[in-house]
Write a structure and sequence with these properties.
Elements: H1 5-14, E1 25-26, E2 28-34, E3 37-38, E4 41-42, E5 50-51, H2 53-63, E6 68-71, E7 76-79, E8 85-86, H3 87-100, E9 104-105, E10 112-113, E11 119-120, E12 123-129
Antiparallel strand pairs: 1-8, 2-5, 2-7, 2-12, 3-4, 3-11, 6-7, 9-10
Helix pairs in contact: 2-3
């Protein structure tokens, strides 16, 4: 069976172009943190490493305002461009934001709530995902 050339070109045009990105760049990112304190006192009985959406959002907004947006649905910082975010730099930014401190966020307004001293940690890491 012969397939007309025009049909072949139409099929090729319908297939999306997929651009591979560097392994060190991630489309979506988030922050994990352990040993969280307020005024030097631990805030959780479980001091193990866990995802923190508020740390993720504040790291995203403070460092990537023109490159990414925080997505409330996924809880991740998502690149607005096709090249993604530099993974090692994201990791360092999560660590630095955790050292500097972060606050609660009102889910309904998105506003930072300063009801006490900032949360802080010296044990944070950034994670990234290809989609």
């Amino acid at each position: 069976m012969l397939v007309p050339k025009s049909l072949c070109f139409a099929l090729l045009a319908a297939v999306p172009c997929v651009q591979a990105i560097d392994d060190n760049y991630w489309i979506a990112t988030d922050c994990y943190v352990a040993d969280v304190t307020v005024n030097g006192k631990y805030v959780d009985q479980n001091r193990g490493l866990k995802y923190d959406w508020q740390l993720t959002e504040q790291t995203c907004k403070n460092n990537y305002a023109s490159e990414a947006n925080y997505d409330m649905g996924s809880g991740r910082c998502v690149s607005v461009g096709p090249n993604g975010l530099n993974g090692p730099q994201w990791w360092k930014n999560c660590q630095q934001q955790a050292l500097n401190g972060w606050y609660d966020i009102d889910r309904s307004t998105g506003d930072i709530v300063v009801a006490h001293a900032p949360y802080k940690s010296n044990h944070a890491e950034g994670r990234g995902y290809s989609a």
